[in-house]
Amino acid sequence: MTQHLTLRRPDDWHLHLRDGAMLAGILPETARDFARALVMPNLVPPVVTGDEARAYRDRILAALPAGADFAPLMTLYLTEATDPADVIAAHRAGLIAAVKLYPAGATTNSASGVTDFDRVRGVLDAMAEAGVPLCTHGEVTDPSVDIFDREAVFIDRVLDPLRRATPGLRVIMEHITTSDAADYVRAHDTDLAATITTHHLIINRNHILAGGIRPHYYCLPVAKRETHRQALRAAATSGDARFFLGTDSAPHADAAKESACGCAGCFTATNTLPILAHVFEERDALPRLEGFTSLHGAAFYRMAPNDARITLRKGDTPARFPARIDTGAGPVTVFDPGFPLHWRVDATASADPSAT
Ligand code: DOR
Ligand code: ZN
What we know:
The protein is an alpha/beta fold and 356 residues long. The chain has a single domain (4-348), classed as TIM Barrel. The protein has eleven helices and 13 strands. The chain has helices spanning 20-31, 50-63, 84-92, 121-130, 150-165, 179-187, 205-209, 226-236, 254-257, 272-282, 289-300, and strands spanning 3-8, 11-15, 36-39, 71-77, 96-101, 134-136, 171-173, 192-196, 243-245, 309-314, 324-327, 330-333, 343-347. It has an eight-stranded parallel sheet. Strands 1-10-13 form a three-stranded antiparallel sheet, covered by helices on one side. Strands 11-12 form a two-stranded antiparallel ribbon. β6, α5 (150-165) and β7 (171-173) form a beta-alpha-beta unit. α3 (84-92) packs parallel to α4. The radius of gyration is 19 Å and the shape is globular. (4S)-2,6-dioxohexahydropyrimidine-4-carboxylic acid is lined by residues 16, 42, 107-108, 137, 219-220, 248, 250, 264-265. InterPro entries: Amidohydro-rel (IPR006680), DHOdimr (IPR004721), Dihydroorotase_CS (IPR002195), Metal_Hydrolase (IPR032466). Pathway: Pyrimidine metabolism; UMP biosynthesis via de novo pathway; (S)-dihydroorotate from bicarbonate: step 3/3.
C-alpha cells in the first residue's frame, strides 16, 4: 500500500555547508528538500563579522543550482573579540539569524571559540536585549571530563550559569545527545529550545565501536548509550515545540574520515527526510513530523513557516540513495541508517498553495 504525507517545506536549523568545491558539491543535497537552513560559521577562518557573513551568504547563493527554492540563514561565530555592535547591526539588517558559541577546542574548527565566558558577557547582554538567539555547542572541553559526559557537564557548569547571568537570552541547545539535555529543555519553558539531528535518532555509541570502528558514525557530540537515543526519539516525536530538526549534516571528504585521526561529522543531507519519516512512523507519530521539520524551528526563530509543500511517499520497495556524493573536494559518504528506507521525497517543487 502506498502512503503519502504532505508537509510544509522543511527547514534545517543546523547545517554545515563549507566553502569552495565542497560547498558546490553538497549544497544541492540540502536545497532539494529544504527551504531554509541555519548555516554554521565554522569555516577556516571562521565567519566572525557581519561583512564576512554577507560574503559567505553570497558565495552560497552563487553555488545554488538554478531554480532552487532555498535560502541560507547565516550565523556569526562568537569569539572573545566579537564586537556587540556589529552583531546587533547584522541582526537588524536581516543578515544573520543567530550567533554560535563554540567552547574553544570542542569540535571541528573551534579553535577561535570561547575560553573565558566572562569575556563575552557584553555580547550576550546585547543579544538578550536585542533578541538575537544564541546557538550553543554544548560540550565542555576539560580533558579530565569523559567525552561521554561532556554535554551533561556543560549544562551544569556553563549553560545554566550563563542563562542565569543573562536573563532574556534566547538559547538553542544544538544537536542534543542526552536525556539530561532533553530534561533541561523541558524544565525551562521560556527562551530555550533544542535541535536534534537525524543521526542521533538512529545510532548509539555501539554503532560506532562494536564489531569494528565506523568512522562515518563518528560525530560530535559523540552518540551516547541507547537510553539516551530513546530519550531523543521521545523528545523529537513528542510534538513539544521546543524540539526541532537541526541535522548537523557535516560533510568531510572520505579520506579525512577514514584516517588514523578521523574528522567528526555525519553527512545526512541526502536522506534525512526519509529517515525521519521512518523514525516517526515507527513511533506512531507521523502526524507530528511536520511540527519537527517545518513548524517548531520557524516559530522559535520568529519566522513564518514556508508556504511551499513537499510530499513524502512510502513505497513497497526500498528507495535508493547514493552511497556517496562526488564533490570537487573528494567523495563524501552519505549516512547509512543501517536499514532499508521505504520513504522518499516525491516532489520538492510542489506548489505554493496560494498559487494554485
Ligand atoms: O560532528 C560534528 N561535525 N560536530 C560538530 O560540532 C562540527 C561538525 C563539523 O563541522 O564537521
Ligand atoms: Zn555542527
